Amino acid sequence: MSIEAARRMRRSPAAARENILQAAEQLLVDHGPQALKLVDVAKGAGVSHATVLHHFGSIDGVQTALAEAMIRQLVARVLEAERPDDPHEQLEGVGQVLFDAFESAGGARLAAWLELTGETRRLTLVRAAVEEVISGPMAQKGINPERATNLILVAVSLAMGVGLIGRSLAELVGRPPETTREAALAFLKAGLAAALNE
User: Fold this and answer.
1) 166 to 97, 175, 181: CA distances (angstroms)
2) What CATH class does 1-57 carry?
3) Residue 155: CB partners within 8 Å, gap ≥ 6?
4) Distance of CA 89 to the CA centre of its chain
5) Mean pLDDT by 10 residues, the chain (198 residues)
6) So what's the pLDDT on residue 1?
7) What is the CATH T-level fold of the domain 59-196, as seen in this structure?
8) What is the DSSP letter of 46?
9) 3-state class of 176 per DSSP?
10) pLDDT in tens, 165-179
């Protein structure tokens, strides 16, 4: 079978959507969110523009679906990292997962792009994702839901900031590139310790 024939093979709707999202994610990683254009996503997925439009409605729909897929993956990894019994070990694992998500695979750049273009309001999955983390692992630790929400807001904001500019900012002030991430994790550990001792 030729490469072109393989690329044009008939897929289920779910497989077609996944194929398009994988192509979009690769463009995001390789070239940033500005590369998420209809023509480039369709080309990367080996489908027509009409196929992308059929499954997502617009390039904005692709961006939103990609962001939501990344959120689902992140929540799954966070919940997996919450398994150790020691809260500080848990935070270390969760912190690594969170910061890795925003420092690699274009997560911070996509989030910033969606915010700058006014598209974050379409990310309705965020509330459910936060509630899943709060009602599960954080509730088991006895952390007040309001405090837990605030910790998550700070953690995600820090991870996004580190992912966008943390390395460059550290270098600009004459520090090793990993300094910003280490300082942010230390800040989060202090916040968790305070929440556990309330």
Assistant:
1) 16, 11, 7
2) mainly alpha
3) 94, 95, 98, 188
4) 22
5) 50 88 87 85 91 91 85 80 67 80 78 79 77 74 80 88 92 95 89 75
6) 38
7) Tetracycline Repressor; domain 2 (1.10.357)
8) T
9) coil
10) 999 999 999 999 999
CA-based nearest residue to 158, from 126, 135, 189, 123:
189
Domain boundaries, the chain: 1-57, 59-196
7 to 1, 11, 44: CA distances (angstroms): 10, 10, 10
**Token pair for residue 55?**
């499954």
Structure-block tokens of residue 83: 């398994």
For residue range 49-80, what is the model confidence (pLDDT) as tens digits?
899 999 999 988 898 888 888 888 888 887 77
Q: Which stretches within the chain are classed as H helix?
A: 3-7, 13-31, 38-45, 49-56, 59-81, 87-103, 107-116, 125-133, 139-140, 145-161, 167-172, 179-196
Whether 106 and 29 have beta carbons less than 8 Å apart is answered as: yes
